[in-house]
């Protein structure tokens, strides 16, 4: 991974995967279905599926509502290399 562009894209994909993994884990830990989360947030099950599938870039507001729906806490951090 000596190519800076490849490294940048790899880190971006890794961060997106980590977010998706955290969303699915939060829902599973809460023993909720996608439909359950959707109902609490006020959206559709298919929207939750797209969110958990990494098909959309969620807003902070959406992440906050998802966290609240699953009884989780949203924490965002910036890390300077």
Automatic annotation (TrEMBL):
Q: Please provide an example of a Pfam family that matches this protein in its UniProt record.
A: HTH_3
Q: Alphabetically list the UniProt keywords.
A: Plasmid
Which terms does the record give in the GO molecular function aspect?
DNA binding
Q: Where is the HTH cro/C1-type domain?
A: 23-77
For this protein, the record's CDD domains field holds: HTH_XRE (cd00093)
Which SUPFAM superfamilies does the record match to this protein? lambda repressor-like DNA-binding domains
Any idea what this protein is called? Helix-turn-helix family protein
The species this protein belongs to is: Ochrobactrum quorumnocens
């Amino acid at each position: 991974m000596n190519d800076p562009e490849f490294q940048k894209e790899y880190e971006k994909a890794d961060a997106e995967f980590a977010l998706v993994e955290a969303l699915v884990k939060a829902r599973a830990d809460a023993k909720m279905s996608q439909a359950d989360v959707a109902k609490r947030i006020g959206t559709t099950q298919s929207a939750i599926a797209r969110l958990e599938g990494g098909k959309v870039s969620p807003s902070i507001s959406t992440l906050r509502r998802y966290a609240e729906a699953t009884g989780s806490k949203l924490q965002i951090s910036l890390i300077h290399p």
